[in-house]
Amino acid sequence: MSKETKLFIIGEENGLYNTVKEALAEFELVFIEAQNYLAELKRHEPQIAIVLKNGFESPVDLIHSLIKEFPAVSILFIHDLQDFQLLRDVTRAGAMDYLVIPDEINVLTDRVQSLAAQTRTKSEAAVSAGSFKRGRGQVLAFYSGKGGSGKTFLSTAFAQTLKLESTAQVIYIDLNLQYGGAETFLGIDSNRSLIDLKPVIHEINEHHIRNVSEKEGFSKLEILISPKDAELAESVDEEYITRLLRACRRSYDFIIVDIPSAMDERSYAVLTEADRIFYVMNLNTPSIKVLKHVEELFQRLGIVTEDRLEIILNETGKENELSKKDIERFVKYPVRAEVRRDLKGVQAAVNQGKPVRKEPKEKKLIPAAKDVQKWVVSMLK
Ligand SMILES: Nc1ncnc2c1ncn2[C@@H]1O[C@H](COP(=O)(O)OP(=O)(O)OP(=O)(O)O)[C@@H](O)[C@H]1O
Ligand SMILES: [Mg+2]
Hints:
Layout lengths: L5 E6 L3 H9 L4 E6 L3 H5 L6 E5 L6 H11 L4 E6 L4 H10 L3 E4 L4 H24 L9 E6 L7 H15 L4 E5 L7 H5 L19 H7 L1 E2 L6 E3 L5 H5 L3 H14 L2 E5 L6 H9 L2 E6 L3 H17 L7 E8 L7 H7 L4 E6 L2 H10 L14 H14 L1
Parallel strand pairs: 1-2, 1-3, 3-4, 4-5, 6-10, 6-11, 7-9, 7-10, 11-12, 12-13
Antiparallel strand pairs: 8-9
The structure holds adenosine-5'-triphosphate and magnesium ion (MG).
GO molecular function: ATP binding; ATP hydrolysis activity
Organism: Neobacillus piezotolerans
Protein name: AAA domain-containing protein
């Protein structure tokens, strides 16, 4: 059994490492220098990591980043002294176990065996839930610095269209934590929300997500609705969102996320994690000004826009202050799609509480839905 689970040992090549290496000779070991561990580990998908006390990085920080990067990893921490405060801190950071070497050298292999066994059960459970290695889904974030620009309308129509026009597995995540919004456009009324994933967020898999998500009736698009209660919403933090998105990546092909205009740690988490950011804007000068502010903010926060941020022009039409050409002159990002102003069609759908898409290959689409369809189809090519 030992050779089938790779153990990643993160530390430095010193006496502690040599002792551990010898004791674990029956396992397949991969040594990772603590100085540059993230870059090294990204080439693997570690399931078990043994973190050694080292002179490069504090164990708590190291464990934090490991879990952030690899939510499924099981971590054993090894120190050379008994230190109860540190033990508490690394456990809180997410280490499953803690040993003092050489004092506890004789239980080391036992502990590693049991970690490996737990890891196997976890991946078997994931396989039976159909969530194992479905590949890497794409996170598509809808954002705008300006409220009311059409993020929620466009993201819901986009997700529904993507679901209807392809065989892709699609999930929609509504992050407008205080008020929601997607339900209005998708005609959904539900008590469930993504906060229901809280008890399982540390081991979250496809099965949990499917249990909590709602299905839009026409397209069968899966939706995770935002909690309504601001107080509950507070416990959904950056780490929660990162874990959720990474779990979704493992089980879905596309993860569409609607982010509110106000920047908070949740929006930040999505914008950092996203493969593409669809920035929604209207054809007027305030929209351009807001985009400039957003650019500055992103730069300060370290959110990369190059090759990620694409402009979606919403409510296009003759009566606008600016044209697409003007936008292209002032804005360096590519314009990926244009969606017409469609007061009649969009309003009627909202008033009826019905989504704009009802079936594949639909004939009578409202103009705005046609534009979204064109955009989705061009993206799938
Ligand atoms: N292409 C369009 N044609 C006509 N009406 C539209 C169009 N796009 C959006 N709307 C309308 O504009 C309003 C704002 O849209 P939406 O709620 O999607 O914006 P938002 O950016 O999500 O707003 P918020 O910042 O409040 O979340 C809605 O009433 C919607 O019906
Ligand atoms: Mg909205």
